[in-house]
Amino acid sequence: MQDDILFDTNRLKSAMITADNNIMETTRAPEKRKPALVRVMAVLLAVVLISCASKPQSKTHHSAGTAHNYPGSSTGTARELRDAVIAWIGTPHKMGGDNRRGIDCSGFVKRIYNDVFGIKMPRTAVLQLNSGFSVNRNNLKAGDLIFFRPPYKANHVGIYLGNGEFAHASKSKGVMISKLQNPYWRDCYWSARRILKQHN
Fold first, then answer.
1. How far apart are CA 200 and CA 195, in angstroms?
2. How many domains does the chain have?
3. Are residues 14 and 48 in the same domain?
4. Hey, which of 20, 37, 190, 199 would disulfide with 147, CB 3.0 to 4.6 Å?
5. Which residues span the domain enclosing 175?
6. pTM, rounded to two decimals
7. What is the pLDDT of residues 96-133, one digit of tens each?
8. Is position 188 annotated as part of the catalytic site?
């Protein structure tokens, strides 16, 4: 970074010297005497060059092979998740979908984890089941993935939000928030995985 600043400063000085030389030349040639304008143009050019030389910082993304540190409390994580989920409520279910026109359960997990935590999750529920590490049902925290085995249906995945609630893309109602103690979900509960290492 210091080298970039030194490089940009040298270019600015060079531009200023060029501007002064142009002023001297216009002094020798009265018909081209526009020193103030030339100097302003040279300064503007230097500023543009410095701006172009700066590199924007991109958001860091991580793969979900192991659990990742997340610099926030459990309460903060629950609030961020809930806010992000609310923006998706009502999005219809679409197998293989990954946008607001339609999304499936694993696609929803992938989008939320990418948008909220900058973590790249696998695309399918089967691969997501192998991410992070296992957690007990009685020790769930906001951000944990919860998996279900509904009878006569494909496996299902959602994101625990805290207070006994989880967000998921339901086949019948699209993205929604459900109660983990609902008899249907309670009976087909399968497993839970923790992707985030939260700092309490």
1. 15
2. 2
3. yes
4. 190
5. 62-198
6. 0.66
7. 999 999 999 999 999 999 999 999 999 999 999 999 99
8. no
